[in-house]
Design brief:
37% of the residues are buried. The chain is of the alpha/beta class. The protein folds into 2 domains: 219 residues; 55 residues, no CATH class. The strands form 3 sheets. The protein has a 4-stranded antiparallel beta sheet, with no helix packed on it. A 3-stranded parallel beta sheet has the order 4-3-7. A two-stranded antiparallel sheet has the order 8-9. Strand 8 and strand 9 form a beta hairpin. The N and C termini lie far apart (42 Å). It has 10 helices and 9 strands.
Length: 291
Amino acid sequence: MTYPLFQHFRTTIDALTPRSDTQSPEQDLLLWRHEERDMSCYYAPFDHVNHDAKIIIVGITPGRTQMNRALMAAQQALQHNQSDTLTLQQVKQYASLSGSMRSRIVAMLNRLGYADKLGLHCCSQLWAEHHSLVHFCSILKYPIFIKGKDYNGQVNLHSIPALQHLLMNQFVQDISTISPDALIVPLGEMVANILTELSDTNQIKQPLPLFEKSVIAPPHPSGANAESIALLLMTDYPSLEAYQHTMFQRYMSKQSWLKKAGGKPQNEQKYKNARAARWHAIARVRAAYHL
């Protein structure tokens, strides 16, 4: 198999200086820029497709940490004269959902029963000795940044032709080569919505996880979803009223608003409404997985 983008950027990657997880994108790896939206897309070596995967885990787009770790993993492999295929396999295994997200996604997959479905002791094995079972991917294959920050849906994907191209000419084509029996796990509501649209137009042949006729997705494993992830992992799900009360009392005791200039606590009802939205969203995921 050939990987034209990897071959094109091979010399640039090989010459990179060591990169930290938080380092800004390398300008020599720029694929395109959308000036009006201050949006940019950079190459990172996430090209490998595991055609034999039993499970497909779908995120939004590789973030800064994953991008930098992928580049460093690819550089190390190149210095050992490995083949392109082996290099890109190892990059996916090492960098996909890496950093602080890794432990969160492992815990969620275990909680949702995927270890049992795949015959694993723990889903951490998908990044280790059983990586042959999984295809890690994103609806936007290469890292996207808006005003220098990771893209997380701030701009509607359908409003930018270059994003549409990534979706249809990379993501859809890639998963069309994977078994129709593979399990799909969408991470977060945005991914679930995009996959719903693709499924409705027969662009995806794998069945999507459904609950009450809607695609169901565990929360994306970013730190911003810590509350939702904690709710999903709970052994005993609290009543809505008990959860709102406990969380508001905790919020008031921490007094985190004091760290902000002129800060003051949120209105109690507004705070509890936000907790209710998360509680209901995760209750649907738990019901779908019989938790």
